[in-house]
Amino acid sequence: MNEQNDTPPEQPAGAKRDAIDINDFVFAATGARVRRLTLPTGEHWFPAVDLAGNLGYANTRQALSWHVAPHCQQSLEDLARSVYGADALRKTAGSGLKKSMRMVNLRGLIALVNGCTKPECGPFKALVSEVIETVQRDGSYSLDPAPVQPAPDGTTAYLMPRQVADAIVRLEERNIRADEELAVARIERIEQMRRTNEHLGRVTDRLDRTNDRLGSVNDRLGALVDRVGGVHDVLGRIADTLDLVADRLRPPGSVRPAVTPQQLLAAWRAKNLVVTEDVHAVAAYLAPALVRGPVHCRLEEVAARTGLTLDRVHDCVRMLIKRGCMRQTGVGAGGMPVYVLP
């Protein structure tokens, strides 16, 4: 069993040469090069799914049921067993076809073409009609012998019918145009991809430059933040110094009567001097010591006891000093500030 696609057929030993090359005949009939199996007897069979797809049938099984006689179709497995018997599976192993695939012979192919509604099948249908009409009128139909005959081997070469030749020419021209259009489309696609890649490259370069600029801006912002932090510290120290100067210039007041820490906090709250929970926490920590006299206090210790940050404790102490709750009288041993009631 020979499998053919679009290559010239190899005639089985003892088989008669076809008057019209089977590949050209099928190409003119279906408009496509379809797979083919040729039996040792020279009979040709074709996958029904290939024919149905090329002829525009949506349902292969339905197309076979409507147009092809039962004796013109069978499965590949049954076809192989009818020729090779038990050795069928080995003989068809390299065909590339499934054993369950439905196959049709040349009569089935012609029936499918006659049932097709595609305009491309018109020339072949015209040939079939001409053959039938000629047989009805003259009793036979024959092809004209070719002007040039092959080597004398007992066979005769014939001219291809005009309808078949014209169909092949049109199909080949269509294929050439399709190949040219495909080549042009590929070239355009390649050019479009090239332009897209160039555009992406330019965009990437711009993004890189933008990232570099952003990195430089971030560096400048970091340096500015460091400078602002330093200025904040300097301003804090200046404010502390001014508070000390103000305390020294303040005239001495009368002796304050003794109060309890709770009374001191209540007085601060009554005068709306302690306005936030953070300030209240720092005031509650300092009040018991302030009512007894000067307080030597490290801000780190206040932060540890209240759970606030060192910066927040510093702001709260500043707030208490500015609102007149206490004042700083100096710096004790180890650089600890000394706070007293005003």
Automatic annotation (TrEMBL):
Superkingdom classification of source: Bacteria
InterPro entries: BRO_N_domain
Protein's name according to its UniProt entry: Bro-N domain-containing protein
Record PROSITE patterns: BRO_N
Every Bro-N domain range: 19-139
